[in-house]
Amino acid sequence: MCHYHHLTLSERENLLFFRAQSYSISRIAAALGRDKSTISRELRRNTVNGKYLPITAQQQYARRRKACKPHKRLENAELFALVKNLFLVHHWSPEEIAGRLQLEHQKALLSYATIYRAIYAGMFDETSSSHGSRGAVRRLRHHGKSRHTRQYQERRGSIPISHDISERPAGAANRSRRGHWECDTIAGKTGKACLVTLVDRKSLYLVGGKAAKKTAQAVNTVLLQVLQGQPVKSLTPDRGKEFAHHAAVTEALNGVPFYFPPPHQPWQRGSNENTNGLVREYFPKGTDITLVPEAYVQAVFAELNRRPRKCLGYKTPYEVHYSKKLHLA
């Protein structure tokens, strides 16, 4: 622990008195209880035109002290506007913003902790927020999100299982090859349209679309449409009944297998589950997806595919999937 304290005005006045008595630097230091290097540095810094004046020395110290403090990074208007736009409009997380800025500019412009402090301090809050809103804090990924308890029981029926997830090839398990997709649905209002999402395990690239209803036939139609032109080596959905007709997809894709995780183990399909959470930022629970244009759905997917990910070294899924480089920040 550092016990050093800066010289006070009283000590500076005593220094002038001892110097007038022709004390040596070592003797002045002993009298003040300071190191002789402190006294030497004080005289060297604050002697003006051959004279040392305590009040002048104190003023110069105060100016240097103020100047040495680091400026807040978000005081830069241009950087503040960029961070605010990426967080509020594009839904980037603080880590994604800080990491991508460092990747593109080859230096740390600011830390994600700085962005979190700004969020909690209300710097990004909109003045038009409704009464009772907690502001931009609500834009954080998991803030206020309810989760199932350990006692939660799945009430959906079982479906025929073709392959267990443990049988997946090494290219899927270690994320070394494109074409191994995790798939799921995002429900809107009950009985109406839903979203079908597929995430490539290697690149985290997202494809999908809107299904007229959350039925096996409607979901199969979307699966076959969005996988056209994509490398497809395997599919890993959950055990929802909307994937009950997976055998028809396997046949249409010339034998591409489906692998199913055990019940109540969403972490086995973590890439898709995490991406669905990102999609939910645009389509909150209760949204009537029937009223959402397909063009908007695809625009959201494109936005997420151009969003940097920490696990990809702050590259975007698009860059990894297509081996291209973008300029985003």
TrEMBL record:
It holds the Pfam family HTH_38. Keywords: DNA recombination, DNA-binding, Transposition. GO terms for biological process: DNA integration; DNA transposition. Coiled coil: none annotated. Residues 165-325 form the Integrase catalytic domain. GO terms for cellular component: cytosol. NCBIfam families: transpos_IS30. Required for the transposition of the insertion element. This is IS30 family transposase.
